[in-house]
Amino acid sequence: MAPTLSLAPAAPADIPALERLVNHAYRGDASRQGWTTEADLLDGTRVDAAELHRMLAAPGATLLVGRNEQGEPVACAYLHVQPPQLYLGMLSVQPTLQAQGVGRLLLQAAEQHARQYGCHRIKITVISDRTELLAWYERHGYQRTGATEAFPTDPRFGVPRKPLALLVLTKSLG
């Protein structure tokens, strides 16, 4: 059963906590407490404060934050309306709360957000080597499109230990 979370758009004051949350969810030793770690694939950070500010300011974008009962950010997802689809990225859950249904709650919130803005499909990208994460998204209705995107070369998003590609998946909201 998923913990009780309140979901709301992030504000600029949330950026330091979100930077810690996202980086702990994906990189470094803290990320190894959960199953979404990229620590074996990439060195460095997943996101920095400047990028979070840019994401927050992008037209049509929302950084959705899940807060625990104490009001602390423990999950987030980047939602960017790009009609006719919504781009979903940076889905992050505090490592100690992973595998408890929090990610599923964020996916449901993303679908609701997409429908609210008239989007009929959600697009995501996942590192091709992340077989367990690809399987998780596929269990939630996402399908591989066959398309790939280059992994960002900017070291602000991490330094790959080997060449990486992003697989494009979509889910139709019918």
From TrEMBL:
Q: Which Gene3D superfamilies does this entry report, sorted A to Z?
A: 3.40.630.30
N-acetyltransferase domain mapped to chain residues: 5-165
**GO molecular function terms attached to this record:** acyltransferase activity, transferring groups other than amino-acyl groups
Sorted UniProt keywords: Acyltransferase, Transferase
> Does this entry carry the keyword Acyltransferase?
yes
Report the superkingdom from the record. Answer: Bacteria
Which Pfam family, just one, is annotated for this protein? Acetyltransf_1
Q: Under what name is this protein listed?
A: GNAT family N-acetyltransferase
Organism equals Hymenobacter aerilatus
